[in-house]
Fold this sequence. Notes:
Order of helices and strands: EHEHEEHEEHEHEHEEHEHEHH
Number of helices: 10
Amino acid sequence: MKIDGNTRVIGIIGNPVRHTKSPRIHNYISEKLDINMVYVPFEVTGDIKTAVKGAFELGIVGMNITVPYKTDVIESLSDIDPIAERIGAVNTLVRTKEGYKGYNTDMLGLERAVLSEGINLNGETAVLLGAGGAARAAAFMCVRNKVKKLYILNRTVSKAEDIAADLNKYIVSEGLFTKVITLPIDEYNSIKEDELIVFQCTKIGLADTDKAVINDTAFYDKVKYGVDLIYRDDTEFINLVRKSGAKAYNGLKMLMYQGIIAYELWNELSVPEKIVQGVKEVLENG
């Protein structure tokens, strides 16, 4: 990759963020499409508003936003896409003349990843572990794909209730029939349904792969599919799902698809399928 005075900069803001595989996605696409653009991580330890303002003043074309800033960043935007506004979380910023416009490609990326694995959510019972920005995207994706019942479990129940309130507004406006239930995470055993589709949306497992939000094997015996939004394949959640005999998937495909959608927004183009497959190989090979 040649970097010169005309190289445009894109990147990712978060904390922690140095572990990110996103540069592999975007720099690979730029190389294959011969676009003079480089993607780098920015670990922000201070005020997100200051970081976003600084990025705009530096001429940065666009950014991904990851934990813990997906909700807080909204206050720094000049505009927001309707889907991201409904979800209440933003993971992609696109530069405009007035400032950055916010999008949520997490939901679209997760949806595409789930469907690519042959998982049909229509009429099923889904469980979300966590109630942060990633959980918001997963929640709206589940409702949009017509799950029958959605449980949101979190240590701080009020955060789960905030998501449920926004979901219920969406459900009414779209004429959907999903029932949303919030629970403290330690009351997981009150879920009586089986054949569950569980989305692990917390940061647990990102660094400490031997930890899981729920360790009870009786819970995992009720799981049909487990999806960990963390893109490691050795998390304890994934291990527990597989030990129960259910199918487990990590967040690598979600990462890939949300990244590709973001790249398309930044450059107003469509990434060819041949390059999509190349991105998949790059991520799978480390």
